[in-house]
């Protein structure tokens, strides 16, 4: 049986058998060398992942849960001390009932939550940085299949994800149709659209414009005085601000903030460049600050470009042909009614292209795309009736 | 009578009497010192402007045409060799008939098309740069009133504008209600919203992040080898890309570009950071390139922050109170049905707050906000019937 290694310490040691361990605690699995879809190569890919529950004897109760762009493996609290980002959805007795299902949440290839990414050191100890290969969602799925092999999961009961996680779930079905029983695609689409690409371009450019980016090799950099340089936190912050606007809705922002000034600050109070802020600016500053404290800028670029590359029809004769072959997978498609990044029409189109032309289930929320995180419970009834029966 | 000066040459000379001259040719008018709304001061403000047609004896046929954020004074070709940006709308026999009306188009305060802005030199010849005061749309209107005085226009027949030009027109009515006969506000709103402020913040931050910005004092800067530095063109380009997305619509971008690669480029073809582009990226690159070749980055910041400051109700007891006092002005409100920067609902709200509660006229276009430029002719019938009778 395959084992996982403590890659971060550089030592090879037994920790847990791959499929057994405490719930909601990060483990890592060494998958071996990997040749990327567009030509890159790395001698070793490690996948960070967490699990909840127990795999049953015939391996039929495994659920693969795919996180979104800046998400991580910590979906639910489990045995850890830290809340998960979908605690209301995954756990004992929840929609994805970890008393019944064995849930696996891998960090995406190129990420910074345990899986090999640009911040991972090479064998000489130097972070890969700009040398990290161009990565597609298909690459991510292929290395996750190695994890599935190691876990003894030939076929997932369900693969599920929202946003970029939905794209990952869909790519799983297209790449390994005989290994996916149910595929739940929430607030995602068959292929990234021109507008999603456009918003993404701006975000990657903002990071690259930051003088601290240093062409992607900013790890360990120091300033003129020898102190550690901050990295491209300003550029990453701008990227996050823009992304966050697309994750929410205009009415929500107007209702929450309007034109209010931030506390004692005065957006009109000063001549020149050091004016005070509006509340909505302070809010976006806060969103930016939170992200840059927890996310690597190179991973943000790699994953954003992976999402730009998302196209279930690439190399498969187009989306329609690719999806028409998936009659062996049961699909569940859902959208947020106010989503303006992954418009409901895009979920409707995906559903129309599927052999079963399933109905699109709707999360009703005024806040936009992020409704897939905040209001996922609205899908509880439909998911229990159709998928997690 | 006041005169205008050739400010760009630094010499004082008679050129044209203020109100007379060839149509569609830039002139400049020196307005004297000005104290800005939030406390700044400049010893001299010059307004660049163009005119078309002739002012009649009683001064009753004057139309003030206000351009948008990156617009300029060259609305119509006139006697020049260069097409104007609203040639189909302004000219002999057009909706704004220059055989009947005297049209004046001033460059906004803080701009870079003839009016004093950050790129204007001080008396020592050094561009104002970071010393340019914080500017509001109200400031712009107040200095334009001095131009109106000099032109002998006590009351405009009509003040008209779209987008930021619409905000300028509305502010004219609110600041000088007895000097505005008709006020035409197209694709604009009573006060900038949280979301408009949010998009604007990202744009100004992108410019400031550019290492070539140098705190706003990049004019005349040189690189390490002594050659002229490019200025913050990368940051300004990112700002323009984002703005441009908000000016258009998702369906338009999807229809025009989809996921197509740009010519021989391959968005998947290379590992690392030098991949090829999607068509939509090339399109945005082109939009960015066009703007940075014609617009000053500091002006972009100053005007963007002026637009953030737009609030017809500021210091007037709120929008409702401010607008309720404008019963002496005849309003014409129009919106683009697919606009997602100045949503139709915001035009509807503006109309509801006006004493006459006028109907909102619609430009029907799939492309979004820019419909106010590309499809303005759709308002021809209504404007001839109600305003330019």
Strand order of the largest sheet of chain A: 1-2-6-3-7-8-9-10
Overall helicity of chain A: 25-40%
SS-based class of chain A: alpha/beta
Q: Can you name the CATH architecture of the largest domain in chain A?
A: 3-Layer(aba) Sandwich
Under the CATH scheme, which class of the largest domain in chain A? Alpha Beta
Question: What would you call the shape of chain A?
Answer: globular
Task: Tell me the CATH superfamily of the largest domain in chain A.
Answer: Alpha/Beta hydrolase fold, catalytic domain
Whole-number total of structural domains of chain A: 2
Question: Looking at CATH, which topology of the largest domain in chain A would you report?
Answer: Rossmann fold
Strand-residue proportion of chain A: 15-25%
The average pLDDT of chain A is 93
Topology order of chain A in helix (H) and strand (E) letters: EEEEEEHEHEHHHHHHEHEHH
According to DSSP, the number of beta strands of chain A is 10
The number of helical elements of chain A comes to 11
Count interface residues per chain for the largest interface: A-B, 63 and 63 residues
Distance linking N and C termini of chain A: 31 Å
Poorly predicted sequence stretches spanning 5 or more consecutive residues of chain A: 1-16
Quaternary class:
homodimer
Task: Detail the topology: elements first, then pairings.
2 copies of one chain form a homodimer.
Chain A: E1 27-35, E2 41-52, E3 62-66, E4 90-91, E5 96-97, E6 102-106, H1 137-151, E7 156-162, H2 164-175, E8 180-186, H3 194-209, H4 233-247, H5 250-257, H6 279-292, H7 297-308, H8 319-324, E9 330-336, H9 344-353, E10 360-363, H10 371-374, H11 380-386
Parallel strand pairs in A: 3-6, 3-7, 4-5, 7-8, 8-9, 9-10
Antiparallel strand pairs in A: 1-2, 2-6
Helix pairs in contact in A: 1-2, 3-4, 3-7, 4-6
């Amino acid at each position: 049986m395959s084992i996982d290694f403590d890659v971060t310490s550089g030592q090879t040691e037994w920790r847990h058998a791959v499929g057994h361990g405490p719930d909601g605690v990060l483990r890592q699995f060494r998958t071996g060398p990997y040749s990327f879809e567009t030509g890159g190569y790395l001698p070793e890919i490690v996948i960070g992942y967490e699990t909840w529950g127990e795999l049953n004897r015939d391996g039929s109760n495994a659920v693969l849960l795919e996180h979104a762009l800046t998400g991580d493996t910590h979906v639910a609290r489990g045995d850890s001390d830290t809340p998960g980002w979908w605690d209301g959805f995954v756990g004992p007795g929840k929609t994805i009932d970890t008393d019944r299902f064995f849930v696996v949440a891998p960090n995406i290839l190129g990420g910074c939550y345990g899986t090999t990414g640009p911040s991972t050191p090479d064998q000489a100890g130097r972070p890969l940085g700009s040398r990290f290969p161009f990565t597609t969602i298909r690459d991510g799925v292929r290395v996750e299949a190695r994890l599935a092999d190691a876990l003894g999961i030939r076929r997932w009961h369900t693969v599920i994800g929202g946003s970029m996680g939905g794209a990952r779930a869909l790519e799983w079905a297209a790449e390994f149709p005989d290994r996916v029983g149910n595929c739940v695609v929430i607030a995602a689409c068959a292929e990234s659209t021109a507008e999603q690409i456009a918003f993404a371009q701006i975000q990657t450019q903002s990071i690259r414009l930051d003088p601290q980016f240093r062409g992607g090799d900013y790890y360990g950099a120091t300033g003129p005085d020898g102190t550690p340089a901050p990295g491209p936190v300003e550029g990453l912050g701008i990227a996050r601000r823009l992304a966050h606007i697309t994750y929410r809705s205009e009415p929500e922002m107007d209702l929450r903030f309007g034109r209010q000034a931030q506390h004692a600050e005065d957006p009109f109070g000063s001549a020149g460049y050091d004016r005070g802020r509006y509340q909505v600016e302070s809010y976006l500053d806060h969103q930016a600050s939170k992200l840059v404290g927890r996310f690597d800028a190179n991973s943000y670029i790699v994953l954003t470009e992976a999402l730009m590359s998302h196209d279930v029809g690439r190399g498969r004769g187009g989306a329609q042909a690719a999806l028409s072959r998936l009659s062996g997978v049961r699909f569940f498609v859902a959208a947020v009614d106010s989503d303006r990044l992954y418009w409901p029409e895009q979920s409707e189109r995906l559903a129309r292209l599927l052999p079963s032309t399933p109905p699109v289930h709707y999360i009703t929320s005024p806040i936009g795309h992020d409704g897939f995180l905040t209001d996922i419970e609205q899908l509880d009834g439909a998911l229990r009736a159709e998928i997690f029966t």
